[in-house]
Amino acid sequence: MRSSISRKRIVTVAFLTFFSVALLLQITISPTMFCSNFFYELPPPKAEGFSRNLSLSHDSLIIYRAYLDLRKLTKVRILAFSRCFADDATVKIGSEVAQIVAIEKSCPWKWAPSCDWNSFYISAKRPLLVENSGRVQVSLPHLNRSISISLSVLSSDSRSLSSGLSICVPPLYWFSNWPLLVHFFELWRLQGATHFFVYVHSVSVSVRSVLGFYFQKGLVTVVPWNELPSTTDVNPNLSLYRLGHSLAHNDCVFRTTSRFTALVDIDEFLIPSRNQTLLELLDDKLEKHPLAGSFVFTHIRLRFDGQDWSKPDFSWLRRSLKSDKWKGPTKYVFIADRTRILLNQVHSHFPPFSPIMISHEEAHLYHARSSWAAPNAHEEFEPIKLYTEESIQAVKKSFDEVGAFLTSPRTDIHLPNKIVSDLVVKCLSR
User: Fold this and answer.
1) What integer pLDDT is reported at residue 376 of this predicted model?
2) pLDDT of residue 15
3) What keywords tag this UniProt record (predicted)?
């Protein structure tokens, strides 16, 4: 959707550079980061096709990534940040007039109306002429401005999406609880997860090492989530909701190579009620609903009684408690080549695909927010057995392997510091 802003746009297209995990593991401490001796921040983004004196203005268009999608109708699809578009604004991809869609459905987003910068999905039919180098021209004709950007190709070969379950983790920022991250990875692996895409803004040294451990096993892809380009006069990061996490959600649609992909926070788990893994449930559901584009799960509060991250023995998995008195937002598993745009739910599928609701008798989204495990939490919870003793021992074994890796001479380890984590929560709540 477009706002009623009528002023002309001066568009600068900045193309963010991606960094490998190897670079992530070598980053230096940012002196401006909170607790600079504890947290690591990713390097600032670089711009492709521009001089060091980036001409950034309040009307700039910042392109994050562009794709040539060969999976269905051949299109160029672009993920970008911008302030709200004027009614008369036009973006062209090659010779084609592009469709501009606010990922949050409206601009400004109703959930964060004071945030000036928003996420956009821009698409057009594949231009007749695409440069041999795999690049395409993006332009604003009325301003006589254009730039050539590179395209990542999404193959029409569907064999890579024939099986498996991937997990997308929204951008981690000021994150230090490395045992929680191990807990998350291993509980999801019990459900059949085969790969994780973790978007990272700033993490502690130990979290960085845990990501490196799982990366070496081929289980994790780390996607650096840098701050947007800024100048002394214009800084989009100061008016962007949660680092633009909605754009990260949609970027994961293009990155995943599994048949099924879940988008969840690190305290959320999708668990079937019967004796089967989530992947087995999804396979069964897709067979019964061949035109499914996504599967939607209802919310239940989860509490692990006695959970203590300074003494991670995982005994709390034997003391799982649930409460369904408060209904939170649903979460979903999507099928990437049937999904157009994500928000809290898939708000746009490619036809003829549609969402399928999973009944509460079959599975739930279990949300284990830390505040619900606090001793002073005033809510009725009832016991539920989610994990077998065999599963708990498997999690402990994997945790011991990670611990051995972290305590090797080449790595540093810090136990979770509750004082630091409480201070971070306090800062983020302002």
Assistant:
1) 61
2) 37
3) Glycosyltransferase, Membrane, Transferase
CB 264 within 8 A of CB 296: no
Q: How far is CA 311 from the centre of its chain?
A: 29
Which residues are CB-neighbours of 57 under 8 A, at least 6 positions away?
10, 12, 234
> Where in the chain are the domains?
61-154, 165-407
Count of C-beta atoms within a 10 Å radius of residue 164: 17
What is the DSSP secondary structure assignment for residue 336, as one 8-state letter?
Answer: G
Q: Residue 239 corresponds to which tokens in the numbers above?
A: 């008016």
Q: What is the CATH number of domain 61-154?
A: 2.60.40
Tell me if residue 367 falls in helix, strand or coil: strand
Task: Give the closest residue to 170 by CA, choosing from 263, 66, 43.
Answer: 263
In this prediction, residue 408 carries a pLDDT of 66
Spans of the chain, pLDDT less than 70: 1-54, 128-133, 142-143, 156-160, 344-345, 373-378, 408-422, 424-430
State which amino acid sits at residue 101: V
What is the number of H-type helices and E-type strands within the chain? 7, 25
What global pTM score does this model have? Answer: 0.84
Q: Which token pair is 412? A: 């540093």
CATH number of the domain at 165-407, out of 2.40.30, 1.10.600, 3.10.450, 3.90.550?
Answer: 3.90.550
pLDDT value of position 411 = 52
Residue from 295, 302, 307 nearest 325 by CA = 302
Q: Which pLDDT belongs to residue 345?
A: 66
Q: At what angle do helices 389-406 and 205-216 cross, to 10 degrees?
A: 110
Query: Which pLDDT score is estimated for 344?
Result: 66
Is the CB of residue 144 less than 8 Å from the CB of residue 59? Answer: no
In residues, how long is the chain?
A: 430
